[in-house]
Amino acid sequence: MDTQKKIALNMGLFLGLVLTLFIALMYAIDLNLFTKSWIGIINVVIITVFGVLSATQFKKTVGGFISFKTAFTSFFIAVVIGFLISTFFNLLLFNVIDVEAKTILSENVIKYTVEMMQKFGAKAADINKVVEDMRASDSFGVAGQLKGFFFNIIFYSIIGLVCSLIIKRVPPQSL
Asked: In 62-98, where does DSSP find H-type helix?
C-alpha cells in the first residue's frame, strides 16, 4: 500500500473511531443532543480537520508539495472511511441495540423540524406535509442511513475541494 493511502486509511479509521465515540457519548448522555445545532457544527469541524490532516500529513511525507488531486484524494479517502464506520455504528445502535431510541430520536427530529419551520414562517399545510413525509420514512433505517451517508459524502467533497485548493502546493518550475 502506498504512503498516501496508508495515511488516509489511518486517518479515516481514527475519524471513524472519534465519530463512533461521539455518537455513543451523545446516546449515553442525552438523545436530545442529536438535534442540537452546535453538535452539528462540532461534527463539521472534526470531520474537516481529519480530512485536512490526512492531506497535510501526506504533503509532509513528500517534501511539502502536493497536487490538488492528491490532496483531495487524501481528504476524500479519510472522510469516506470515517463515515462508513460511523454509519455502520448508527445502523447497529439504532436498529439492533436500541430500537426504542430510534423512535425517540425520530420524534425529536420531527419536533425540531417543526420548530425551525415555524420560526421561518412556514405555512401549517407545508409543516404538516413535511411531518407526514418524515413519519413515512425511517431516517435511521438502512435506506435512510445510506441516503445520509451519500449526502454527507457529497457535502464533505465540496468542503474537501475547497480545502484541497488551499493545501495544494506545486513545486516551483525551473526555467
From this structure: 68-92
